[in-house]
Amino acid sequence: MSPRNKEQFKEIRDQRQQELRRSAIQMFSQKGFASAKISDITSNAQLSHGLFYHYFASKEELYIEVIRDILYDFIDLVEQAAEFEMTALGKMEWLTEATHSGSIKEGVYRHILVLQALYSDHLNELAKREIVALYKEAVDGIGSIIKTGQQEGLFVEGDPEELATYHLSLAHGLLLWNARTEKPVQLSTDKVLRQLKKTENGGTC
Amino acid sequence: MSPRNKEQFKEIRDQRQQELRRSAIQMFSQKGFASAKISDITSNAQLSHGLFYHYFASKEELYIEVIRDILYDFIDLVEQAAEFEMTALGKMEWLTEATHSGSIKEGVYRHILVLQALYSDHLNELAKREIVALYKEAVDGIGSIIKTGQQEGLFVEGDPEELATYHLSLAHGLLLWNARTEKPVQLSTDKVLRQLKKTENGGTC
DNA sequence: GTCTATACGACGATAGAC
DNA sequence: GTCTATCGTCGTATAGAC
């Protein structure tokens, strides 16, 4: 077996892994952990169900990995926003829009998946604590942005972390609601950010 | 069989039904539809699992009834708020606190249950539409309160229904988050309502 | 109305051929 | 690496005794 072949195998393995993860996000969030069958996940990724166990030890293992993936992505997004060369308000606008970009359904599925993981008992407390910790990392990142916004004098006073929590609550709640209505309310970054901004007409007051 | 006995039987039936519904809310929301076994629901209500089918035709039937119950309760709550003799702001404050009262966990479980119902495929589209319609009824009720608040000049301008959606998104999102953190952020009705109020210091400006 | 026992199907996981 | 066939388990729903 040449090293060439070894590499090729590894590539195939990685690619299949990725396909299964993608498929799992879809299935788990649409059907929930228990109802998403292995065969749902594999057939959606166009593999046989037997092959699943060459890539993951169990259904539960895949579940937790997928949730980790989602949260890492979200943390990345926040970090990306933080590094832009713009005002805190601009960063928050960008972040708000990015959270709601792409397919609405996709965003909402990912969010529900995290919720389900936290509030069901498929996962042990240790795993749940890890998830909470990752989410908190994202909240802290947003808190930092808000803090600079306060120093710029554009944002209301108050504990930045608490304000970040309020912001995320609003953004995600809205995401959920929008995904179900026939004609979704056009997302208004303005309105989502209203609670953060000091006043609408600043110095002219 | 005397009429006296007939009545007694009916009472027992009703009571058992109620016990099963209560138990089901707990189990469904904690474990999800698929993972909540009939035996979980019955044993939690201290009945044998066989007896379940004397009260409900299937697990799915109970599921949808329970969700209806939750939404009817919520609509009642909004109507109650609307009928008070107070300003719109007072009504919204009362409603916000009522939503977060009782055990936090209980409130959050009920909310998650509705979400799960909407975003999983245990329910057919018809049932989902009914749920959305009920939820919308509650949103409309809140929208009405907001409208009077605008006429009083205390609330920001904008489509009342849209503002109601934002309010609920924030309130429920916060509920979810609070239930998972070790030391929940003390609910601040003030901050939840900030997005609705016109300015913090009104006429003195 | 309440219970226990059981039929029946579904699904996670494994074995073994290719 | 990929597939099909199969085992073992678990859970819904039913049957039938009390």
TrEMBL record, chains A, B:
Name of a matching Pfam family: TetR_N
PANTHER family membership: ACREF/ENVCD OPERON REPRESSOR-RELATED, ACREF_ENVCD OPERON REPRESSOR-RELATED
Claim: tRNA processing is one of the keywords in the record: no
The protein's name: TetR/AcrR family transcriptional regulator
UniProt-listed InterPro entries: Homeodomain-like_sf, HTH-type_Tx_Regulator, HTH_TetR, Tet_transcr_reg_TetR-rel_C_sf
Keyword presence, Ligase: no
Keywords, comma-separated and alphabetical: DNA-binding
Ranges annotated as DNA-binding: 37-56
Native organism taxonomy: Bacteria, Bacillati, Bacillota, Bacilli, Bacillales
Domain HTH tetR-type: 14-74
